[in-house]
Amino acid sequence: MKAIKLPSKLPLGISQSGFQFEMGVKGSEDRNSDWWVWTHDPDNIALGIVSGDLPENGPGYWDLYHVDHDIMEWLGVEILRIGIEWSRIFPKPTYEVSVDYELKGNSLVYVDVKESSLRKLDELANRTAVRRYREIVSDWKRRGKVLIVNLNHFTLPIWIHDPLRPRYHGLNDFDKWPSGWLNVRSAIEYVKYAAYVAWSLSDMVDMWSTFNEPIAYLTASYINPYKGFPPGIFSPNAFTTGFLNIIQAHARAYEVLKELTGKPIGIIHVMPYIMGLNGGGDYVEGAKYLLNFSLLESLINGRLLNGEVRDDLRGKVDWLGLNYYTRLVVSDSRSWLRFRPIKGYGALCRCMDRSLEGRIVADNGWEVYPEGLYHVLKETYLRYGLPIYITENGVADEEDRIRPNFILSHIEQVSKAISEGVDVKAYMYWSLVDNYEWAQGFKMKFGLFKVNHRTKERIPRPSAYVFRSLAKAK
Fold it and tell me: How many C-beta atoms lie closer than 10 Å to residue 357's C-beta?
């Protein structure tokens, strides 16, 4: 394992979410989200749509946050990204709290959440949950560290999204049932939630992120039903509708958060390195645009998927959170996408020890391709010039045979990008401890630390010492 030179000013950090980490200690259960309903549904479990593992058996960050923060300090972590669960803050609907907004057809062009509305939201909020989030945030900030708070990581309150209804009634009449991001009304409610969280926590938060991986979320929900994400129904129309409403939710929340806090506001986006099986071509550029750049084009330049340009969406990102795991190899296709992912590369190496190129494959079938991180950093920075925080980079590796070199090789690529002028502000590993990996349950182990799910003991893997040595060497 060769030594690498880490940029002296590059903070190392940890990323995690709410739903995947919080539950685990009795009394910490959040039963009010769509993912709680989805993972407990007997039909989903019987059909193998979800693993049958239950989130209430997770690592227990809700109660053991101080333990994890102590471990992070031992590791030399300087920056932490956490998630807030909308369903914890508002387990019941917030429709009754009025706010000023302007809706032109399906275009949400304005939302304003006044102090009077925030006080009414405070009456509806689960104040016990708000107090616990303040305790978590305060415990981290008292250590003199940087905190990023992400406001949405896939999950939605059950009153916003009923994940099971489409199975029996389809995706019709978006405005007549809790259809999640298919209803523009959800964007308005999201802005209320975001404003309230900022109002409640902003004194201790350094940076805000509105969403984690919206393109990946929509793709898993409406394009790739086999991913096990709710509602698991193929519908390109639902994808584009959800895309627009998430974009609008971000833009309107950006304006409200900026006014309330003045803090930097970004969005977190997963970006594989996309390459053609036989070189380049229009299909490669099309894949890059749809998967990597369409989100940023909407929020930086105001250009939507349909080519429409809206000034009210332009310039709504201060920083980019980049999640990188692997590459995507594509070929030309006559399908509606115009490109076709090729099995045997990237995230399509299931049941393989090596990719078709002979590269190492992780436990979840994802090819290890560190140089892709360098290429994505370069492409994205040259195109947009935004400061970039690597908000997720990790590997499913129960035996820790891959992870030590995975971390070193990816940070080496970050160093290379920085040396060539890319403004990378931090590197955050996913994750500190093994977590609940959505439909796959606890099978995939991303943690620097193992978790005994009975006792909740955190047990370091060798890679934890590699991470610590990197942080301390700075």
Answer: 12
Which positions are annotated as active-site residues? 213, 392
Helix crossing, 127-141 with 184-201: angle to 10°? Answer: 50
126 phi/psi in degrees, rounded to 5: -80, 95
pLDDT tens-digit series, residues 22-39: 999 999 999 999 999 999
Which of 315, 252, 290 shows the shortest CA–CA distance to 107? 252
What are the sequence ranges of the domains in the chain? 12-473
Q: Tell me: the pLDDT tens digits for 281-332?
A: 899 999 999 999 999 999 999 999 999 999 999 999 999 999 999 999 999 8
Contact 251, 312 (CB under 8 A): yes
d(CA 285, CA 433): 36
Give per-residue pLDDT as tens, 119-158: 999 999 999 999 999 999 999 999 999 999 999 999 999 9
* Closest of 114, 81, 87, 84 to residue 99, by C-alpha: 114
CATH class belonging to 12-473: alpha beta
Nearest to 210 by CA among 319, 125, 293: 319
Task: Record the tokens describing residue 385, joined without a space.
Answer: 């010039």
pTM of this prediction?
Answer: 0.97
What is the C-alpha separation between 345 and 244, in angstroms, rounded?
Answer: 30
CA 156 to chain centre: 13
Residue with tokens 């308005």, as numbered in its chain: 188
How many whole angstroms separate alpha carbon 417 and alpha carbon 377?
Answer: 7
Does an H or E element contain 104, and which? Answer: strand 100-104
A 10 A CB-CB count for 310 gives 17
Distance CA 75, CA 466 (A): 9
Q: What angle in degrees, to the nearest 10, is found between the helix axes of 371-384 and 403-419? A: 30
From residue 458, alpha-carbon distances to 20, 71, 139, 160, 448 in Å are: 16, 9, 19, 35, 9
Question: Is 60 exceeded by the pLDDT of residue 1?
Answer: no
* 9: pLDDT strictly greater than 90: no
Q: Are 137 and 201 in contact, with CB atoms under 8 Å apart? A: yes
Cβ atoms of 71 and 141 within 8 Å: the answer is no
Which residues face 323 on adjacent strands? Answer: 270, 392
Among candidate residues 194, 322, 309, 202, the one with its CA nearest the CA of residue 246: 194
Residue partners of 471: CB distance under 8 A and separation at least 6 = 12, 75, 76, 77, 78
Q: Locate tokens 């000013």: which residue?
A: 9
- What CA–CA distance (Å, rounded) separates 286 from 294? 10
